[in-house]
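Hi R.,

Here's the input for the manganese (II) ion complex you asked about:
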Amino acid sequence: MAAPGENLRINADRLWDSLMEMAKIGPGVAGGNNRQTLTDADAEGRKLFQKWCEDAGMTMGVDTMGNMFMTRPGTDPDALPVYVGSHLDTQPTGGKYDGVLGVLGGLEVVRTMNDLGIKTKHPIVVTNWTNEEGTRFAPAMLASGVFAGIHTLDEAYAKEDHEGLKFGDELKRIGWVGDEEVGARKDKMHAMFELHIEQGPILEAEGKDIGVVTHGQGLSWTQVTITGKDSHTGSTPMPMRKNAGLGMARILDLVDEIAWSHKPHAVGAAGHIDVYPNSRNVIPGKVVFTIDFRSPDINVIAAMEEDMKKGAKKICDMMGLDVEFEKVGGFDPVTFDENCVTAVRNAAERLGYTHQNIISGAGHDACWINKVAPTAMIMCPCVDGLSHNEAEEISKDWAKAGTDVLFHAVVETAEIVE
Ligand code: HGY
Ligand code: MN
Ligand code: MN
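And here is the predicted structure with manganese (II) ion in place:
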């Protein structure tokens, strides 16, 4: 299959300007972003992305989960599209590049194809997947999960945020309920590529420009509810206390121990914690928190879940506390498509970028799309491996290298027409 010439590269300044422009929407308080899914800021970011894509000659399709599909036609109307994209929603204290680089990198691929007058047999579809983060509405990768048939539309629409607002109502409120049935496209995809920052320290430490993502580790989110008894922090004698907060603290220590016991790859922590009534002089009678376990090995994930539940029940029994578990998210470890991974590796070689194989530590929409279409990911380094933090940073060179490789892998897979 013809590949773009090794001297063909994207326009890094234009890409960087677009990243900085998008970063102005839903600004954080420390230089990053708070553009959470289905907020007005999300709607504003979507509008800007739609404008840029339509200015580049693409036409928009939107499905009932608000997934955005911006199409650049191919020469063969029957050829299945090559998808390229990621997500525009961010964490509450997110960075400017997590997800956004993959969406605007896809846009830059099309802009470059327009500049060079490149025609491809297969159409190109630049995609923004709704609610990848799962921070406002769990689980993560919700809309790509509904698209791939993992969750139902009704399940997704019923998800509630901290204020009790429903996903379906919020999607309607911001005006992004599309007319395409979600998932109608899933059997008509030639391939999908996702460019993403690594969100870990490996590529920078190894001095590599590109991560050729061969696999993604699996994830398990278990929501734990511990019930004790609200009581006065001053006048309640120690032996009479039913301290749900203390129970949680002991369980979180156990979670850390369990993850360490499966070193070097397993990880475990809780990022979401709600304490009730969260008053300085009331012993917490209830806590709700989500335990996030991950590993490349599916058996290790199951073992960590099992050990946690056993240990948590023992701790709560000893303390006279009730404990309930609810699985609120998860997916198995992922092996990406060999041919797509090879297209990524060959592109890095052709372009003279240093590269290495890598397993993705974070979850991505590509992990679900990989179930319905040949899929691969490209990673670029990020400073100190930091992400899900407003200080997340990458260099323009890293953004350029990642998007150059994306350009070559996508155009080659979409087959250039001379
Ligand atoms: O949780 C994840 O791995 C992703 O950043 N949503
Ligand atoms: Mn992401
Ligand atoms: Mn993220």
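One thing worth noting: Residues 91, 98, 133, 388 surround manganese (II) ion (ligand 3) (CB under 6 Å).

Cheers,
M.
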